[in-house]
Structures are given as structure tokens and as C-alpha cells.
């Protein structure tokens, strides 16, 4: 399964990145070698091998479902990094008429 | 003073032969002089540093100091530092001011370290040359036409040029060890889970590991002592009893301090790939380990060759998910002109991310997309298990695994930038430690014919930090590669 320019365009749409035809071609071209290596990896026999999703074989910890952040002033602090806010709300382009 | 290690500076500070104000002030002067050449720092915080230094001096006078109190430090700009700009080397976060500090930054500050600034890095920690920084490449202090390595290039160069005695970094596929090798300093990547990832801007969550740069293995141990520990805010942080990572270093072990240590030499690391000067330097170092009492044993890691493709499936997959948060709504860059919400996302991300970050997001999105998940992501996780099994078997026969950190020494700026595969191959020896979650250190072990530093990698099994640090420390007691200072930056 070689990566095609169409695959790149489709992934760019899914990832919400605007991409020109020339850029998509460049990405496909530059990643060809990497995907050749990936194809070689896909040929490895992994029958019965449990996927390794984590570096340590430990159970992720569980805790009671309670509120841990209670400082109301943090909203203002966090929103100082936002491109557009009003009355404590994040502003985005209108999505519902 | 400028070329002293953390341990040496600590003794001078505690004995009041030196004040932190004096030390911090002279290092800030050095940083301001050298940075226009090296581009190692993205933010220099003179005011904040001097006030921390003053507090450190007061703490020393009060007799409540830790061994790190008053020692200047730089943080990689992926590590959040409350009130300081944290850019991740990206246009996306050019003006982002961290609202809180990372666990590791908090721990080092609590120990009394003085943060002088934030270091340059490949954008979102994606790269091996620091050329992917939106703010321009870091230059190698040994030859300023060369790269310093990446992604933690700024931290490596800052320690190499003796602008700071120590710096933090993060290592996802080699991002501490490879720049440490190319810049001629020590770089330690601890076991995954030993240092909390809380407050790191995430690249690949199952691989990201905070760590440290220093001149010596001993300094790396001192910093790790302060950085390690359980943190409930990172669900993968391990709850283990605290340990002193420097405990083996002061033991009087006689003329053969490495007696009983079995050094594993994987035949896969010595076959092809590394430059001849590097292979020679590594073999000389191995002879050095033998004369210190270690025995060597050949081991085999038959699946390690697949590390690179496994990494370039898993890491971009996790990155594409983590970087979805940069949408121009809650923080970061937002495009100035757009038609609707989707168009705002697309233009914001097209403008905010650089070429390499976009490539990795696209790889990740592709391998996770409908119909491909099993073929790529699941398959890579299975091969990851095979690689981990190889190491598990090897560590039944040896205590540490030794080889080159990087297949080449520092290359020229611009040389590899148009060929991602060539760039990715820089991490061929380092990636496996991230896939297996095990610790590794790179230490200087010589120079090539062009006068560029060579790095030796010492890998260990999970939680073997104290041992790999000891092996590195004993080597450093009989060599002086780690003491060499680049000619242009000698005090």
C-alpha cells in the first residue's frame, strides 16, 4: 500500500490542514522512503503477539470521580492565551444560523 | 567557575565561596554574548533568574539548601514554566505564556535551581537537527556551520558552550541523547514513568520522557534525584519508592570499579551504519570498560532494525491526536482570514505548523484512518512488543548495552533537511529505548577527524538508571572527553 497524493489530500482534510496540490505532491514524494520501510515492517510475522500500547505493564490508576480544580480565577488566566474571548467564553465563527 | 560541573558549583555555593547571584549574573552575560551566534535560547529571563538567585543565596545562608540550590538551569521550550513564554519552537505557540509549570520544572525550582531561560528546539520536538524550529536552527558550538542535533538542540548547545551547567530536555525517539552526542555533552533519558509528563506539551504520549543534559553523569544523577517522583496528574507516572540515583558513584570500588558488570554488545549496532571514526571511538571506549573490570558479551536484537518504521507509525499516530488541540480557539495562533469554522481550523493549522509537523500529522492521520488502523498502528504495536522482548532476553545475559548514540557526528545545516528519511535515520540507535521505555545515557567518548564530538550510548533495563550512571561515571573518571570545551566558548 504505497501512499498516494489522494491519500495525502484525504488525510489533510481529516486533520483540518489546508494543503495545496503542490504541497500534497511534495509530502507524498518525501514520505515514499519512510513508507517503504513501514511496508517492510508490515511483513514481520506477528501471529499471536499482543500489541504493546504502553512502556510498562501496569494498570492505569483509578480515582474517585470528584472535582479537583476549584479555583474560579484560573479561567481568566487560561483565557489570556486565547485568540478571542468575551464574557469568559471562547469566540468562534458562527456555526448555527 | 564557568566550566565547573553542577557538583563542583554546589560545593562552592554551599561553602559560600561563590554566590548564586554572582554565578547566575556571569552566566547570563555569557548567554547574551553567545546567543546571537548559537540561537540556543528562545527566552532569556534575567530579571526572574536574578530574583531566584537572590532567594537561593538566602536559602544557603539559612542552611536549608539542597545540593541544587542556586545552580542555574535552562528548560527546553516544550516544558511549561509558569509566567514564561513556552513556544515549543512553533509559530502556533509564538506568544503562549504558560499558565502553570510542568512537574519537572516545579521539582527543580523547589530544589532551588535558578531558571535562566528557555531553549530552542525542533517544532513540537519533531526533528533531529533543530532545523525545524520556527525560530531558526541552533548552531553547534564545536562548529557553527553544523547542527547541534535535535530535538533538544538548544539545551545541548547551551550546556556544550558552558552557558548553563545543566538543562532539561525531552526524549521521544532520541531527542536528548542524539543532540547530546552531536554537541559533546551528557544526556540522560530515564525510564518511562519515572519523571511525570505533566506540563510537557505532548508529542507522543506513550514515548515522551523528560530528562536532563549535563557535563557529567554525576550531574545527571543529581538532577534526576530532584526530577523523579510520583505525580497523580500524569496517569502513567509510576508510584515507586524514591531512590538516590547517585548512590553507586561514591562507593569506593578500587581499581576495577566495574568488576561484575556485563556489557552487552549488540551485533546489530556494529554491522553497518555508523561512520568509521565513530566505530573506532566506541571500540576504544569498550576496551576502557574492560580495563575497569567489566566483561563484554555479544547479544542479538533481531527485531531492532524495525524500530524506525515502528516509531514512524506510533509516534505520528499519537502526535496527530495530541496536536488536534491546536485549533485556534483556546490558545495559540489563529488565521486572520477565513470563511467558516472548518476553514478557520484549516487555515490556522496550515499557517501555525511547519512542514515537518504537518508531514507527521498527515502520516498519523493516515495510519489511524478508517480501514488502516490494524494494518499500521496495531501492527506497529505488535512489532514494538517483539523489540521489547529482544531487549528483555538480552538483559538476561548483560547489565548494560553499549554502542554508538548516532550513526554520524554533527552534519552541516541544510544537508539533510530535504530528505526526511535521511534525517529520521539519525535516531536509528536511540529509538528502541523509547519503544521499550527503558533508560539510556549518551556521553562524550572522542572526536572525529573533523574535530566533532562522538557520543557513546549506554542503555539499561527498566529502572537501571543508577547502574548506567555508574558505568558512565567510572568511564568519566578515567577520561576527559566530557571536560573538553569548544574553542570559541572557552572562558
Task: Give the helix/strand layout.
The complex is a heterodimer of chains A (97) and B (491).
Chain A: H1 5-14, H2 21-42, H3 74-79, E1 85-86, E2 89-90
Antiparallel strand pairs in A: 1-2
Chain B: H1 6-14, H2 20-38, E1 41-44, H3 46-62, E2 72-76, H4 103-110, E3 114-119, E4 139-140, E5 143-147, H5 153-160, E6 166-171, H6 177-183, E7 186-189, E8 209-214, H7 217-227, E9 262-266, H8 267-270, H9 276-291, E10 295-299, H10 307-322, H11 341-352, H12 355-368, H13 373-394, E11 400-404, H14 420-424, H15 431-436, E12 440-447, E13 453-460, H16 465-478
Parallel strand pairs in B: 2-3, 2-6, 9-10, 9-11
Antiparallel strand pairs in B: 1-3, 4-5, 6-8, 7-8, 7-12, 11-13, 12-13
Helix pairs in contact in B: 2-3, 5-6, 7-16, 10-12, 10-13
Q: In short, what is this structure?
A:
Chain A is mostly helical and 97 residues long.
Count of β-strands of chain A: 2
Percent of residues of chain A in helical segments? 25-40%
Distance between the termini of chain B: 9 Å
Order of helices and strands of chain B: HHEHEHEEEHEHEEHEHHEHHHHEHHEEH
The oligomeric status of these chains comes to heterodimer
What's the number of helices of chain A?
3
CATH C-level name of the domain at 6-259 and 464-489 in chain B: Alpha Beta
CATH H-tier superfamily of the domain at 6-259 and 464-489 in chain B: Amidase signature (AS) domain
Question: Looking across the biggest beta sheet of chain B, what order are the strands in?
Answer: 1-3-2-6-8-7-12-13-11-9-10
Report, as a whole number of angstroms, the end-to-end distance of chain A: 43 Å
Rg value of chain B = 21 Å
**CATH architecture classification name of the domain at 6-259 and 464-489 in chain B:** Alpha-Beta Complex
Shape of chain B: globular
Poorly predicted tracts of residues of chain B: none
Taking Cα atoms only, what radius of gyration of chain A do you get, to the nearest Å? 23 Å
Give the low-confidence spans of chain A: none
Arrangement of strands in the largest sheet of chain A? 1-2
Amino acid at each position: 500500500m504505497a501512499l498516494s497524493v489522494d491519500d495525502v489530500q484525504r488525510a489533510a482534510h481529516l486533520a483540518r490542514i489546508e494543503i495545496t496540490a503542490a504541497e500534497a505532491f511534495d509530502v507524498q514524494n518525501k514520505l515514499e522512503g519512510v513508507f517503504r520501510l513501514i511496508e517492510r515492517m508490515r511483513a514481520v510475522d506477528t501471529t499471536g503477539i499482543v500489541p504493546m500500547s504502553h512502556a510498562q505493564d501496569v494498570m492505569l490508576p483509578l480515582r474517585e470521580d470528584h472535582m479537583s480544580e476549584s479555583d474560579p480565577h484560573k479561567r481568566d488566566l487560561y483565557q489570556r492565551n486565547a485568540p478571542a474571548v468575551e464574557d469568559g467564553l471562547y469566540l468562534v465563527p458562527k456555526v448555527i444560523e | 567557575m564557568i566550566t565547573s560541573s553542577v557538583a563542583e558549583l554546589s560545593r562552592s555555593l554551599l561553602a559560600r565561596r561563590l554566590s548564586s547571584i554572582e554565578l547566575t549574573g556571569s552566566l547570563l552575560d555569557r548567554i547574551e554574548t553567545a546567543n546571537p551566534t548559537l540561537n540556543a535560547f528562545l527566552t532569556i529571563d534575567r530579571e526572574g533568574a536574578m530574583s531566584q538567585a537572590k532567594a537561593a543565596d538566602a536559602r544557603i545562608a539559612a542552611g536549608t539548601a539542597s545540593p541544587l540550590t542556586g545552580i542555574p538551569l535552562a528548560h527546553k521550550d516544550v516544558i511549561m514554566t509558569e509566567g514564561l513564554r513556552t513556544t515549543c519552537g512553533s509559530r502556533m505557540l509564538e506568544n503562549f505564556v504558560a499558565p502553570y509549570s510542568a512537574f519537572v520544572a516545579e521539582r527543580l525550582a523547589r530544589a532551588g535551581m535558578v531558571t535562566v531561560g528557555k531553549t530552542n528546539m525542533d517544532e513540537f520536538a519533531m526533528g533531529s537537527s533543530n532545523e525545524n524550529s520556527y525560530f531558526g536552527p541552533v548552531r553547534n558550538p564545536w562548529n557553527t556551520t553544523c547542527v547541534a542535533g535535535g530535538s533538544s538542540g538548544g539545551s545541548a548547545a547551551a550546556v556544550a558552550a558552558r552557558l548553563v551547567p545543566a538543562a532539561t530536555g525531552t526524549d521521544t525517539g532520541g531527542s536528548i541523547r542524539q543532540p547530546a552526542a552531536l554537541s559533546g555533552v551528557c544526556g540522560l533519558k530515564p525510564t518511562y514513568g519515572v519523571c511525570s509528563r505533566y506540563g510537557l506539551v505532548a508529542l507522543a504520549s506513550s514515548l515522551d520522557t523528560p530528562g536532563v543534559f549535563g557535563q557529567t553523569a554525576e550531574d545527571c544523577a543529581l538532577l534526576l534525584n530532584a526530577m523523579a517522583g510520583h505525580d497523580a496528574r500524569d496517569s502513567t507516572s509510576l508510584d515507586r519508592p524514591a531512590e538516590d540515583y547517585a548512590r553507586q558513584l561514591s562507593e569506593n570500588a578500587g581499581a576495577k570499579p566495574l568488576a561484575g558488570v556485563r556489557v552487552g554488545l549488540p551485533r546489530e549496532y556494529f554491522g553497518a551504519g555508523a561512520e568509521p571514526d565513530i566505530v573506532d571511538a566506541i571500540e576504544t571506549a569498550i576496551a576502557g570498560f574492560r580495563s575497569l573490570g567489566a566483561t563484554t558479551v555479544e547479544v542479538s536484537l533481531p527485531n531492532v532494525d524495525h524500530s524506525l518504521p515502528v516509531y514512524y507509525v506510533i509516534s505520528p499516530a499519537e502526535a496527530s491526536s495530541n496536536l488536534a488541540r491546536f485549533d485556534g480557539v483556546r490558545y495559540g495562533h489563529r488565521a486572520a482570514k477565513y470563511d467558516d469554522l472548518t476553514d478557520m481550523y484549516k487555515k490556522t493549522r496550515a499557517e501555525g505548523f511547519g512542514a515537518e509537523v504537518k508531514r507527521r500529522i498527515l502520516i498519523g492521520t493516515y495510519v489511524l484512518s478508517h480501514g488502516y488502523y490494524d494494518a499500521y498502528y496495531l501492527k506497529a504495536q505488535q512489532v514494538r512488543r517483539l523489540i521489547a522482548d529482544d531487549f528483555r532476553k538480552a538483559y538476561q545475559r548483560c547489565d548494560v548495552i553499549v554502542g554508538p548514540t548516532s550513526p554520524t557526528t554533527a552534519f552541516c545545516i541544510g544537508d539533510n533537511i530535504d530528505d526526511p528519511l535521511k534525517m529520521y535515520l539519525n535516531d536509528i540507535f536511540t529509538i528502541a529505548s523509547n519503544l521499550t521505555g527503558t533508560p539510556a545515557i549518551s556521553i562524550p567518548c572522542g572526536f572525529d577527524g573533523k574535530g566533532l564530538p562522538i557520543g557513546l550510548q549506554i542503555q539499561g533495563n527498566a529502572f537501571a538508571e543508577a547502574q548506567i550512571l555508574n558505568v558512565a561515571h567510572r568511564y568519566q573518571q578515567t577520561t576527559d572527553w566530557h571536560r573538553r570545551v569548544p574553542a570559541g566558548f572557552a572562558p
